[in-house]
Write a structure and sequence with these properties.
Elements (H helix, E strand, L loop, with lengths): L2 H19 L4 H14 L5 H4 L6 H18 L2 H15 L1 H18 L2 H18 L5 H15 L7 H12 L11 H22 L9 H4 L6 E6 L14 H5 L3 E7 L2 E3 L12 E5 L2 H11 L1 E3 L7 H4 L4 E7 L11 H4 L1 H5 L2 E7 L2 E3 L13 E7 H9 L4 E2 L10 H19 L5 H14 L5 H7 L2 H20 L1 H5 L1
Antiparallel strand pairs: 1-4, 1-5, 2-3, 2-4, 6-9, 6-10, 7-8, 7-9
Helix pairs in contact: 1-2, 1-21, 2-21, 4-7, 4-9, 4-18, 4-19, 4-20, 4-21, 5-6, 5-7, 6-8, 7-8, 8-10, 18-19
Length: 474
């Protein structure tokens, strides 16, 4: 065994360990693998970066743009309304229609993109029908995977396998070459989820307010400032006692007004502060701040909401700028106007010392956010929120153009008029030229972490082939 083979095997093992431990995000690990192969001299720059020009990478990126066209046209909003109407009749019928609809969409749109655009709508449906989001999100994910098995366009792995076959001198897979077996998996999967799977999906949200769901009541209290309090006259940013005790001021009740504080808000005598912190230190803060604890015992969502802000359950998505960063690094309060009250990270609920937790895709947060910022948070993919704000209204003209273009992509690839990559790239260009989405929206729609992951793993594949590692393992 040569050193090159040993290096590639060792690098593969390191990548697997990093993927499993989630020490770094998957795209960072993929880039690390690519750079290691370039620096070691195993791959030339042309070979190492060739993954970005691979037809599979181009196709996946184009499919994200095509999917975004339907989202921007409000087609998913239309789907959400239909699901809510069905839910009034039968939750079972609604779940069946949702899985069939998502599966069929995943035939022709990349399943990753399909899930990404449907998660906000699904969360809104769950909120409106008073069910746990997990009861709909997990079937959504499984249905997209089942549907994605049916065509080449359905999943990134199908696209990649077809591209690798072509690179090896074989014929690329036909559009519906997977369909016979894929439809069997799809049918069996839906039947299983409708009968057994739905019963064993964990309930991640209890009945009642979010404050109760996230167990926040034991970490909230009220603090009444007296005239002689050292906090009086200080802004929140310059109040050392609040920083020393890691106390977050959520609201200030001043007379008849309820204020949502900022760093510049100046505290006044008789202010009633609604605060979150470790209760073991609150009594000491009370003494140091010369204040009185309030008598508020049972907290509800409406106690922490105001006419222009609300509590929202938020999920960190795979392309969120918060993924892989701690709250100290991302500073969501300053950058997005969001107060993070609790985090469910790897299944564990945390209320204190949140600042140093490195957020990962899939983490659930309880946040307090102004109504005016919700649309921005959704559009910029900071969070996936159970809110209809930011989901575009249905635009029939744009939806029709988008469906025609996507249909043309499928037909031209199915009949062999164009390669899958050429058809997808052409469709993405037509989506922009037709005005369905702007070029800026197209850039935003692409899940760049997925493309970097593909490019990095393609570089590893080339290295295995070049060094003889793949032949040895075979």
């Amino acid at each position: 065994m040569t050193w090159e083979v040993g290096f590639v095997l060792g690098l593969t093992l390191v990548a697997v360990v990093l993927f499993v431990t989630e020490k770094f995000s998957t795209d960072v690990v993929a880039v690390l693998v690519m750079i290691a192969l370039l620096v070691s001299g195993i791959l030339t720059p042309a070979e190492g970066f060739n993954g970005f020009a691979n037809p599979a990478t181009v196709t996946v990126g184009a499919m994200f743009v095509l999917s975004a066209a339907l989202f921007r046209a409000g087609a998913v909003n239309f789907l959400g309304r239909a699901l809510r109407r069905l839910a009034r009749r039968s939750s079972t019928l609604m779940l069946l229609v949702m899985m069939l609809g998502v599966g069929v969409l995943s035939f022709f749109l990349n399943n990753t993109a399909t899930v990404a655009i449907l998660i906000p709508v699904t969360m809104v449906v769950a909120q409106r029908v008073s069910t746990s989001p997990s009861k709909l999100l997990m079937p959504l994910s499984f249905a997209s995977m089942f549907g994605g098995m049916c065509t080449v366009l359905g999943t990134s792995t199908n696209i990649l396998a077809s591209s690798m076959a072509q690179t090896a001198g074989l014929e690329p897979f036909g559009m519906f070459e997977f369909s016979k077996l894929g439809l069997i998996f799809f049918a069996v999967g839906v039947i299983y989820m409708m009968t057994v799977g739905r019963k064993i999906i964990p309930e991640h949200r209890t009945a009642g307010d979010l404050t109760k769901t996230f167990g926040l009541g034991d970490y909230l209290t009220e603090l009444q400032l007296h005239e002689e309090s050292p906090l009086v006259g200080q802004s929140l940013a310059s109040a050392p006692l609040l920083e020393e005790f890691d106390i977050e001021v959520l609201q200030i009740i001043r007379g008849k007004d309820t204020l949502r504080p900022t760093a510049r808000t100046e505290l006044r005598e008789h202010d009633l502060l609604r605060i979150k912190g470790d209760l073991r230190t609150i009594n000491e803060l009370k003494e140091r701040a010369q204040a009185t604890l309030g008598m508020h015992m049972k907290w509800r969502d409406k106690d922490l909401e105001s006419k222009d802000s609300k509590l929202v359950e938020a999920i960190v998505g795979p392309s969120s700028p918060l993924a892989g960063r701690s709250l100290v690094e991302s500073n969501p309060r300053k950058n997005y106007g969001v107060s993070v009250l609790a985090i469910r990270h790897h299944g564990a609920l945390t209320h204190g010392e949140l600042q140093n937790i490195k957020l990962m895709s899939g983490d659930t947060l309880l946040i307090e956010v102004p109504d005016s910022r919700i649309a921005h948070l959704i559009q910029q993919r900071v969070f996936l929120l159970a809110s209809s704000a930011g989901i575009p209204r249905f635009d029939g003209a744009k939806a029709a153009k988008g469906l025609v273009i996507i249909g043309s992509v499928v037909v031209s690839a199915a009949f062999g008029w164009l390669s899958i990559a050429s058809a997808a790239a052409t469709g993405a260009l037509l989506i922009v030229l037709s005005g369905c989405i702007s070029m800026e929206e197209a850039y935003t729609a692409i899940e760049w972490n997925v493309l970097f992951l593909l490019a990095g793993m393609l570089a590893l594949s080339v290295a295995m082939e070049k060094t003889g590692t793949s032949a040895m393992l075979a």
